[in-house]
Amino acid sequence: MKCNNCNSALPEGARFCMYCGQPVVATSTPTEEVQLARLNAAVPAPLAEKIRAAKLSGERKVVTALFADVVGSTTMAEKMDAEDWTEMMNGAFDRISPIIYHYEGTIARLLGDAVLAFFGAPIAHEDDPARATRAALEILETIREYAPVVKQKYGMDFAIRIGINTGPVVVGEVGSDLKYEYTAMGDAINLAARLQSAARPGTALLSQNTYRFIAPLFNVADLGQIEVKGKSEPVQTYEVTGVKADPGKMRGLAGLTSPMVGRNRERASLLGLSQKLNTGAGGMAVIIGEPGLGKSRLLAEWKSASSEGIHWAEGKCLSYGTRLAYHLLIDLTRALIGVHPAASEPETRAALEAVVAGHFAESVLEVYPYLAHLLSLELAGESLERVKTLDPQTLQNQYRAALTKLLESMASRQPLGLILEDIHWADPASVDLLAQLFPLTKRTPVVFAMLTRPDQDTPGWKLVLTAREMFPGAVTELQLSPLSEGDSRQLVANLLEIEALPIHIRDVILKKAEGNPFFVEEVIRMLIDTGAITRQGDQWAAGKEIENVEIPDNLQSLLLARIDRLPEEAKRTLRVASVIGRQFSAAVLEQVLNRIDRS
Hints:
Largest sheet: 8 strands, mixed
Helix content: 40-55%
Oligomer: single chain
CATH class of the largest domain: Alpha Beta
CATH topology of the largest domain: Rossmann fold
């Protein structure tokens, strides 16, 4: 046992400390409930508000469960003092929990030396499997850094292993303490725990259920199939090893392609902007549309048709990046100097030095220190002297001045197309600075093209408003609508490369997709994966009845994320409407709601 005041080791049964004289207060190992309450108390305020606002009550959610457990914990616990064990585990939990919260996951349970976290409940995001996988990689890294501390202080080898699986869970109401009840369905949580047990120390294993959502984004090792207790068939597993330097496309169907349909007018408007750019005139473009309507595809078509003579640089926002200061600006700056987001510090430094030296041979120190600081590169000498005493506002002014100089210099040699993708996830710091760069388009061949959802309550919407105010009537603003029935039918025909597809199959696809190109692709992917449509030679054929096939999980996650953003009253109305049926009159819905209110 130890003294509560000075932490000195004491003989068992001591009532006073022989070193500082303080009375010894008996302590016990904190219960899992107490530990969970301690971690929940540290949930960032914005996330806590979202969790409490969820107001769930027995809702079925598709979640990605992350199960992390300490390797050899039973043996360690037997060898350690109870207080030392608790202190060591608290140190691990205190390092793990901020990573989970950063990706807006929640800690569902602490099970002794294990953590069960959900990504997708109570808050749903369309990329929860990717969030969980990123969190797993960061957790493994932070525990690798913690292990030497544990070794030095307690003489123990410390490591964890992680299992990740995606599946349905019924989530109960969230309490004021952020605790909530859940019910596993389809063995979603059990499989995550089994994968954790099968993982090598210091690694994370993914199920096939999770892998199919994250494959384009992460490097994995295919470990084949393993026997899992409680499963009649072997389970396919993958070990995630890192983030891909060049991520693949999350959308589209392998082996199935289609020309862009239904966007000829929008494409022509953007090409007109390219022609102005090539004559030395700048411009602004805003592409607005709900998820899946083809914003990125339209952008790709524009870039492909305008590749001659224009230097394109793209900054992408992260779905969890609103609280990451300058993350959009950093991504754009990396694109300008030609390094990918996963590039090492030496690679990034070399690229920045080459670009700055090539444009500012006589005035390197007016640009390099500030862009290097923005990119979190280590500085020394006069470069360090220039930034180390600057306050945040002055630093932002220097970032703006340095970027202005760089963009002006680059545009004087070749017109610039600057893409700001998914600005509905942009961080306020990037938004403020980028808005100050817009005047460049009045005097240099630079075009800013912004892609966003119509989410007007996000920080990124300020960029749209600024563009409208600064260039009244001169912004190329495109509002994407769902495809017409004719265009949707053409897309299905193009993807399936067949004119003789049975009418009832086309109707099912069109009915489920409702004019959303992404939905069209994903519904077709689902039908192929389930065998509802099969390839027979060079044609497609119906394999079984498909009218009652459920929406696949990734579309469901997309829809749930949109539903979660609705006000509580709207969500309640939506729940009631979903019970009534697919089509009904407003009067019927009103009567049902009134009857519920009276009951």
